[in-house]
Amino acid sequence: MFRPRVAALLVLPLLSALACQGVEQKPPPAPKGKPARVMDKKGDAKGDAKVEGKEVEKRASQAADAKAFVDRVDGELRTLAVAAGKAEWDKNTNITDATEKAAADANEKLMEFMAKTIKEATTFTGSDIDPETARKLHLLKVSASPPPAPGDADKRKRLAELGAKMEGIYGKGKACEGTKCKDLGALEDIMASSRKYDELLKAWTGWHKIAVELRPLYQEFVGLANEGAKEIGYKDLGELWRAGYDMSPADFEKETERLWTQVQPLYNKLHCYVRGKLGDKYGKDKVPEAGLIPAHLLGNMWAQEWANIYPLVEPFPGAASLDVTAALKKAKYDEVKLVKLGESFFTSLGLDPLPATFWERSMLQKPKDREVVCHASAWDVDLNNDLRIKMCIKINQEDMVTVHHELGHNYYYHYYYTLPVLFQNGAHDGFHEAIGDAIALSITPAYLKQIGLIKDVPADEKGLINLQMQDALEKISFLPFGKLIDQWRWDVFSGKTAPEKYNEAWWALRAKYQGIAPPENRPDPEFFDAGAKYHIPANVPYTRYFLARILQFQFHKALCEASGHTGPLHECSIYGKTAAGDKLKAMLALGSSKPWPEAMAAITGTRQMDAGPMIEYFAPLEKWLDEQNQGKQCGW
């Protein structure tokens, strides 16, 4: 549950308040034909009353013990979580053997505490426990980060070592030819800009080699993490992850499928159009008309977002379109100015400025003197408004959006940091990921003009379709990837996918959901391509990102309505709308103190997740895609 307050790492899964309070046990009905209770002249009723009185006293004592327990845990947990947070920050911003060991030691202590605490939390039951205490108990019971550690001290230590080791291998990973090496940032630049098939293949295979070393470590990690999950009453770690959404694990899996069913038709239309354009560029022999798209041709190391291939698929070349990256560079944005831009959006809504310590303690550039984890993340290291981001910022549109995303986490931390530590989290982890992205949806052409980045707003339909294509290549393309990462892990944790089938299962899911294929044969056990994605070795649950892509549009629509917007959803910007800011702050301040449907209702007025606003937002593009795909064999 409590690793450092890092947006990409911290998880505090939830159960419903009803489940927290337990189910009141009613006495069995009396046999038919007999009174439920027979009293004689000797006063058995008084005896029964004494028994009942003792039972009431017992329940009251248990309730008091439960409250004292969670109060004590909250204080001890703060101390250990802050220590782990500081060690993790040091490791992420300076990867050395010493910082890896220090982080492993701090996380081992946290794991030991959590393993003991979770087991103790399961001993408190009863309907007399107050709702706040009951919720804290169940937030403890479904804690998933760090992974629950086995009771055996040596195994617990090894689990912590594996976590630190895998993150270190990933963070230091490079693709080398002789003495010439490229880190992930350099390889990502190639993936983003090159249009040479073989050059892309070389960059893709070079990075994926770094994961081979992770495979035996990950297999060992799975066994130990599952052992810890079983010791606290779950079948495996995947079931524990799925338990954190105010519904049963089985119902949550159904919920993700329901949401995917809503958005799958739109994804398939985008896939069909993009595949045709890539076939035109690279040849039908490399990109078949009715087959899978090779994973290295989509502009991203993991083919998770496709925005970088926009020039290849632009609907109306030459029509008005936005080059935000060029505008940022022309305006001489640097790393600090880009983050200031993000902060200014939040403050325009009436939210507080970032604390001065944010600017003193954040890592905004990649240091030249040491190895770091460049993967963007947001932190509250001391759990007391010690806000920071860690990011190797590049001055481009993608990182401008990422800055808003990370600041969304920071502002969530800011508005709930005064709550008890056990409530210092999002309503569910998808909420945390969605806040900044919902704000970024307001980075409309009209907003960019308002802040002076562009002079003219594209006003014709061609400009709109170009803009929506840019957005879809990021938002829509990501959806199946966001879902399948954890589907693969759930199957690994449950044993459905055996270790000798890791890579085969990985690519089967990528074919099923994404419609993509590896660019070459990738057999087991030679390869471990899942490990080339940060969230696998870092053990970060990923369904949160799938949910966030959907929730951001749901939040955006609600905030637009609060701001008085009446036009098409894709035209709305809430910049400067304090009414929207008030609604946002009310939800942020709840943290995880209430079940997520209540937080959802606070911002949207409904208690259900819904992809409808996302589909509404992209209605113009979907209509255009239908026209372009006529006569094509879509699907795979």
UniProtKB/TrEMBL annotation:
Checking PROSITE patterns in the record gives: PEPTIDASE_M2, PROKAR_LIPOPROTEIN
- Which UniProt keyword terms apply here? Disulfide bond, Glycoprotein, Signal
| Pfam families the UniProt entry points to | Peptidase_M2
Signal peptide boundaries: 1-19
Which CDD domains does this UniProt record tie to the protein?
M2_ACE
Q: Show the segment(s) annotated as Disordered.
A: 23-55
TM regions (residue ranges): none
> Which InterPro entries does this one have?
Peptidase_M2 (IPR001548)
UniProt lists compositionally biased (Basic and acidic residues) regions at: 37-55
The protein in question is named M2 family metallopeptidase
Q: Which organism is it from?
A: Nannocystis radixulma
Q: What is the lineage of its organism?
A: Bacteria, Pseudomonadati, Myxococcota, Polyangia, Nannocystales
